Amino acid sequence: MKIMNAVIGATALAALSLFSASAHAAGYPERQITMIVPFSAGGPTDTVARLVAEAMSKDLGQQIVVENVGGAGGTLGAGRVANAEADGYTVLLHHIGMATSATLYRKLPYDTLNAFEYVGLVTDVPMTLLARKDMEAKDLKGLIEYAKANKDKVTVANAGIGAASHLCGMLFMSSIETPLVTVPYKGTGPAMTDLLGSQVDIMCDQTTNTTKQIQGGTVKAYAVTSPERLDVLKDLPTVKEAGLPQMEVGIWHGIYAPKGTPKEAIDKLSKALKVALKDPNVDARFAELGTKPSPDADATPEALKAKLEGEITRWKPVIEAAGQYAD
Ligand code: ASP
User: Fold this and answer.
1) Name one Pfam family in it (predicted).
2) Closest ligand 1 atom to the C-alpha of 209?
């Protein structure tokens, strides 16, 4: 009888807590939401997150506050969200690194495909191959010659193993069959500061961090990784035009929540994302930074899930061929 009572008690308690979770979710969001960016403030992922978070906040009626948790190529921040309370008040804005780190790290503090709920895709940003302003090479051919001739001293900045800058740098090095010296940062915001000061030689980074610098002539730019030239950087050849088609890559960004986050919360976040991506300010700022908002059909949990799965499969053999692992 005692056992019976205990079982009934436990079942009632579970039902009650389920009820109160969905009752909470119905009124969601009732307070501020934290959006974790797994890289430093002032970098390209941070820029995208802040623009989108502001526009989503308007739709949700609650503020989304961006928190930067940089380190270990984005895996620290992703791990933070994987282990956060699944209540809809902690989300993650990450990029392609979510897929590449699944292969680059043989051990992660989370199971990439099973630790998250999906909100939707945000934007697909091209990368640009840059060098310090005083780099003598005039074009990509010249940069390759310089890199090959000075391979023991040429430094390539990145945001750690698993970052987009790491992937792009890895594609550059494997395309020219020349390993160079890599210098990791917690994000390409601080890496850009060092590139501007000529403390590092080369960097690959999203246009959301590089367009203004390229336009202002504070860095040398050699190519863009998109299939077509960009309106905002008309003179910059594509990697295909410049002779390294293997470097073509798009840095897709997505929003995630911890596994088990109530569906009502995910639905509201996903709707707010769609609204944010139609915000004229987001659209205009993205255009200035060489990118555009994802279409409605992509700002969905299903589209992000499919993208992540497809990209893990796509990059696995490339990373394995390069033989680069974080551990
Ligand atoms: N652009 C960085 C990367 O390489 C991250 C950042 O700082 O936003 O992934």
Assistant:
1) TctC
2) 1
